[in-house]
User: Fold this.
Amino acid sequence: MPLRALIVPTVCTIVAFAMLAGLGVWQIKRLQWKQDLIARIEARAAAQPITLAQAMGRKEAGDDVRHARVVLEGRFQHDGEVHLYSLAGGRAGWRIITPMALSGGGVVLVDRGFVPHRLKQAATRQAGQVEGTVRVVGRVRLPHPRDAFAADNDPQKNEWFWRDLDAMASAALGDAQSGSLAPLIVEMEATEVAGGWPRGGVAVVKPSNRHLGYAITWLALAVIVLIIYGIFVRNTLKRA
Assistant:
């Protein structure tokens, strides 16, 4: 009878242990992947900037150009700026994304940096609306699918909550000019701007890496399941 009473608990323990241990091993694999990703991002951050044409060539060749440093030269088209909702330093505000007409031809959207709510409108920060040909260095950001929790973009109010590149291009440039747009956004590095705004270089580039903690948690739960099962078996056999 005691052995028969152990059948169901034993099966349940095996299933639970396999699931928990499997989750722990998966998190370890994710840890290795994330560490490799962070290493690549840090290497790109320390590299010399390349031209946009070089970045586009690498992208078309299948290389990962996310966070690659690029240098741009052109003129900002401030009348086409769009506002992307953002958090920086614990406060809410907007990232100012402005089309740049490149000296060599073509257009690219440039994320110039963060402004608080009170400076959302360009008229409140005229000193920072740089005119003439400028040279900037920034990091490549590629479009990505909408996050499940992101609010709806509102082009009519010029309020954006996720990077919909095609819609942003249409709003900033119009359908006629948007065809010459590079399929990426360049996020400017920190640089001095008259008036202090927009403030570049405030975005978090290094992704979070909590996989080791998750792995320890799942594996610890797997061990606890075995300990509980061992105690149950011992007590069952004693009663027998």
About this structure: The two ends are 8 Å apart (CA to CA).
